[in-house]
Amino acid sequence: MRRTITTALIIITAALQSLAAQTPPYGPGERVTYQIKYGMVGSGLATLEMKEGFYQGKPIWHAVVTGQTTGFADALYRVRDTYESYIDPETDLPVFSIRNIQEGRYRMYNEVGFDHALRTDSTLVFSDLTGSHTGPQGLLDIVSCFYWFRKYYLAEADSLIPGDTFRMMTWFADELYPIVLRYMGTETVKTRKGKIRCHRFHPVTEVGRVFKTEEDMVMWFTADENFLPVKLRFDIFVGSFHVDMTSYEGLRAPLKYIDQ
Length: 260
Known about the structure:
By secondary structure, the chain is mostly beta strands. The chain has helices at residues 2-20, 71-76, 144-153, and strands spanning 31-38, 42-55, 58-69, 80-87, 94-103, 106-115, 122-127, 131-136, 140-141, 165-172, 175-191, 194-203, 217-222, 229-236, 239-249.
């Protein structure tokens, strides 16, 4: 029995090391800009950026997502939102995150630390707003989960079957928040620079509060070495939001356009 357990642990460890050794489809220097459209007057900009940095003296990868209103929408209801994740490049897990929300007169700032090493069966979380918490092992934040998804799940995209679902547990708004993505197959997506073959996913949404159905949000990731998010659409009770990639730099590999 002891030998069996030891053998199983060796196999599991080897598998995890193999996963960790994978070359990520992203890296420091990647920066993507998106245009947000909502209705006739709603507009905004969003950026997704990965940089090198340090946290408590150790090198990390610093992922930053920003979103802001522009034009007439900015005059009506000014939004300046920033989400930051400090990611350990050896484990791809977050060690620290920041949520900085400025929407109209509303303000909210939250810092969260993650300890993945102290306990082997869980993640220790400390929020400057609500104190200490315990979450499942491998807990992600809302930003790092999509980088994790690109590296560990989309790397197996060639074997995906429509209907396959992927679940990641995150810490968001000071509580456990599951992210569930359902694979829907491949589609051709039109961008400003040409058409790109993409993988389509439906994040499973909570029905009733904002969304009408579980499939009112759609995300498209490029079906190449980058697995880059290029388009997002979500329908809510009061209308539809469209988020489209407008520019990019620092990609691991050139994007593959169908018409080039």
